[in-house]
Design a protein that fits this description.
CATH topology: Non-ribosomal Peptide Synthetase Peptidyl Carrier Protein, Chain A
Distance between the termini: 19 Å
Number of strands: 0
Structural class: mainly alpha
Shape: globular
Number of helices: 4
CATH superfamily: ACP-like
Low-confidence stretches: none
Largest sheet: none
Mean pLDDT: 92
Helix content: 40-55%
Radius of gyration: 13 Å
């Protein structure tokens, strides 16, 4: 499981904002945690998968995409803030993320 530090959330937020700024060609200053990924900046679910791969490498995560998919069905991500929170759970719990529901 990934090491969670005080800086982890800020690193994740910075990475998410930078990624969507570049991919969706929007000014990073216009992004905030309430930004709706699909309706506000025309993002899509494939971008989420790309981000997962970035974070898997950055934090040396061992998580299966099917686990993330199962979690996402019950906990859909609509805003950048929700995406950041979900990513924090993935970093902290990896494949055990589904056990949080028990």
């Amino acid at each position: 499981m990934g090491q969670i530090t005080e800086n982890t959330r800020q690193e994740v937020k910075d990475t998410v904002f930078q990624f969507f700024s570049e991919e969706c060609e929007v000014d990073i200053q216009s992004l905030h945690e309430g930004t709706d990924i699909i309706n506000d900046i025309n993002g899509d679910s494939l971008m989420f998968l790309e981000l997962i791969e970035i974070f898997k490498k950055k934090y040396n995560l061992n998580i299966e995409l099917k686990i993330i998919g199962k979690y996402a069905v019950k906990h859909p991500v609509r805003t950048l803030g929700e995406l950041i929170n979900t990513q924090m759970l993935i970093i902290e719990h990896e494949n055990d993320i589904l056990d949080l529901e028990k």
